[in-house]
Design goal:
With 391 residues, the chain is mainly alpha-helical. Helix content is 81%, strand content 0%. The protein is built from 14 helices and no strands. The protein has helices at residues 7-29, 32-38, 48-71, 73-91, 97-125, 131-138, 141-160, 162-183, 200-212, 218-236, 243-269, 274-291, 300-323, 327-389. Helix 3 packs across helix 5. The protein is globular and about 50 Å long. The protein starts with 6 loop residues before the first helix and ends with a helix.
């Protein structure tokens, strides 16, 4: 199959598939009150409708990277989008809670396949000159999907219940599957080593090998610190502010991250390696985190903090093809990043709430700053390891 006239056509279609994958989180997360009305006896199980996807990601992130490389990126993406569409359609019927939870586990596998295959395909179809910008765009998919779901999905769910929102998501996923059949080139022949069985000892050994690699694992290790704080701070910090400042922070902080990622981040990536941009973002974020308690009435410090985190957001994805030059290694790196991202999202909010309860706002901001400082030290040590391995 021939490529589209402009690579941006395929890139934007792959990005749209990513919005569908992020929608697998946001379609549940932003309408929890409506889900509570649909499942009034759910109690604490209601939260698992959101967190089950993270649990699947933590358990199977790297496995997804291995399997996607074996099966084929385009083939995996089309099947994962089709499966995601079928699951959302089933969810639109609001089945009994145990069935809904089981569907979320299967949906977690489809989600992982998309977030591994789609950025790997973007790196393949994007020429060198636009690859950093294309992957920076990819880095915004989560924030954009949550914003769109909150803007459009919440009013729909409030008026009609969750069913129509899930049906709309199913339609989006199915449309992306059909579109990408036409826009994305067919997979290359299968990579070597497809016959090796993925036994548990082999899987554990591969996890150790990948996370010890300063090339494969570097973006993932930085992403762990990013996700450990991003959603957590957005959830925990605004309630500590006056009402207007809290609203401004919750609304503008994610948008500031996206704006900086797509402007300053893309500009810096034209001249700097992606890891250097990531380091700049983390260093600025560490400094700004310490300033948060100095302006307890203002939204500005938190918005500035999230703005500089936009540098980390896009450049982390751009670093994967810069550090790894084959589709297989990029898939593994994307799998590791998905695994660490889900781990950070799962642990971040409980950790920050515990710190806030024990040490108050100053303790919270000190821990956030320490996370960013640890990210800087981790990236610097991995960079030193890479220089030692290069001839």
């Amino acid at each position: 199959m021939s490529r589209p006239a402009s690579p941006w056509i395929a890139i934007l279609a792959l990005y749209a598939a990513g919005l569908g994958a992020a929608g697998q989180f946001s379609k549940m997360a932003v309408i929890l009150p409506q889900l509570g009305q649909a499942y009034p006896q759910a109690g604490t199980l209601l939260g698992f409708l959101v967190s089950l996807l993270s649990l699947v990601g933590v358990a199977l992130g790297l496995v997804a990277g291995m399997l996607v490389a074996r099966i084929g990126f385009r083939r995996t993406l089309i099947w994962a989008l089709s499966l995601g569409a079928a699951i959302s359609l089933a969810q639109s019927l609001l089945p009994p809670l145990p069935v809904m939870l089981a569907l979320r586990v299967i949906e977690g596998a489809a989600h992982l396949a998309i977030v591994v295959a789609a950025p790997t395909l973007i790196a393949q179809v994007a020429p060198d000159r636009i690859r950093p910008a294309a992957l920076t765009l990819w880095g915004t998919f989560f924030g954009v999907a949550f914003a769109v779901t909150a803007l459009i999905g919440v009013p729909v769910a409030q008026r009609f219940g969750p069913g129509p929102l899930f049906a709309a998501h199913a339609l989006w996923m199915a449309a992306m599957a059909v579109l990408l059949v036409r826009l994305v080139p067919s997979d290359a022949p299968a990579i070597p080593d497809t016959g090796a069985r993925l036994t548990l000892p082999r899987l554990l050994r591969r996890h150790l090998e990948i996370y010890r690699s300063p090339f494969l694992a570097a973006p993932a290790w930085g992403w762990l610190f990013y996700t450990l704080t991003f959603v957590a701070v957005l959830a925990v910090w605004p309630p500590l502010l006056p009402a207007r400042a809290a609203t401004l922070t919750a609304t503008l902080a994610p948008l500031a991250a996206i704006a900086v990622s797509m402007t300053l981040g893309v500009a810096l990536l034209r001249h700097w390696p992606a890891i250097r941009v990531v380091l700049l973002g983390f260093a600025l974020a560490a400094a700004l985190a310490l300033l948060l308690p100095l302006a307890p009435q203002s939204a500005a410090p938190a918005i500035a903090l999230f703005a500089v985190l936009g540098l980390v957001q896009g450049a982390s994805f751009a670093a994967i093809p810069q550090l790894n030059d084959t589709a297989e290694t990029r898939a593994l790196a994307n799998g590791a990043l998905a695994q660490m991202g889900n781990l950070g999202n799962m642990l971040g909010t409980p950790l920050m709430l515990a710190v806030l309860g024990l040490a108050g706002a100053p303790g919270l901001t000190a821990v956030v700053a320490a996370c960013y400082g640890a990210a800087v030290l981790t990236h610097l040590s991995l960079d030193r390891a890479r220089r030692g391995l290069r001839p």
